[in-house]
Amino acid sequence: MSAATGTANSLSLIGPVPVNLFGMGPTSVEYDESPRPRVLLSGFTDDEPVGNLLDGLAPTSRDLTEVGLQILRAASWDAVVARGRPTDGWQGHRFLQFGGAPWPETIDRLKIELLPVWGDEVVLPSECPAEFRDEIKKSVIPVIRNTELPRRAILPPLVGMQVDYFIPLVTDADGNAFAAIYKPKNSAEEVVYLPTGVEPSRAWIALAFERWSESDPEAFPTAAHWTRHPEWMTADERAALEDVATAERNLSQATQRLEHELVHAVAVALREVGFEVEIRDESGGRQKFEDLRVRDEAWTAIGEVKGYGKGASTTDVMKLQRFSKEYQCEMSVFPDAQWYIVNQFRDRDPGTRPEILRGQDADVDAFADDDGLVIDTRTLFRLRKDVAEGSLAAEEARATLRAARGRLVYPEPQANS
Description:
Strand content: 15-25%
Largest sheet: 7 strands, mixed
CATH architecture of the largest domain: 3-Layer(aba) Sandwich
CATH class of the largest domain: Alpha Beta
Structural class: alpha/beta
Shape: elongated
Number of helices: 11
Number of domains: 3
């Protein structure tokens, strides 16, 4: 065997060979490709130890503020980590931004902007991904709570016009986002936005890279995936992983059981006032249906039932609108109404709970224009109770529900004189 042949065979075990396996001629070989992820830094001062934050996470980095994309090949970089709004960026980049005006800078029609908000409340919404929640509680919520009013938050942008998707991580009581993940229309691949005051950290960089590795593992080959594989774990690590998996399964099962029980309780209440109620998940099949179909002779409403430790979310309203279109495809007509039935702040005394979707009147009005009705389970309970006690006829109760739009309003019980 010649030395040249031996070299070629060795290369075939560890890297690309510049020969087509089928003998059809040479293929392209790329040299001097930097290891990934390749990260551009923006807005950091010379005395900030940013390199320490990237150590072991991003083997290739460069100061974007110093050089600019005009002298770099934008497509050779994967992400931008920035303090404040980045100085530059490309539509293929993913952004982790700490404070400043949200990226990107766009024309007014597409702008994602901060506005002053005055409420004291800080909400960890249900949409926040599970893997982000601990770090949100540790490093974001304390910063927001220590910020004087008015605070600044992102007005939720229009999905389909300003963004392809928008996931709030922390909000005020009206749904304005202090921190969020979003994909701006015709711009960045994704932005993870954190508010001013949250300091850049290895924890946040690792969380962003792990999220991005799910959609692009070649660009973000994070250590987390292989270190969690049982093949490379010690016995103690495997046992700990199994404990975590068991706890997650138990939590998921408990949550599903509570939601199932709430759907059945709402169905019972509606049946007691004379509606015919179909629990759609009992229809079988893999397709996700709306929770309920509620009928009164030829009249039909579709319903989604949700329980929250915090306040209601307009995200589920959007789900109902999708179910309405599916109903129209099935029945050739739209449903007569869409009902969003919510047990919110379920751990609090019902008498102290705020109005459902408080401060989001514009969203409620828009839902009403689409034959939508938001129903607080407390109101439904009072209505059912009055029917059971004979102070309200079942026909009147059904007529009230059929006619209502926006928020269901039913008179509070009057004290005896």
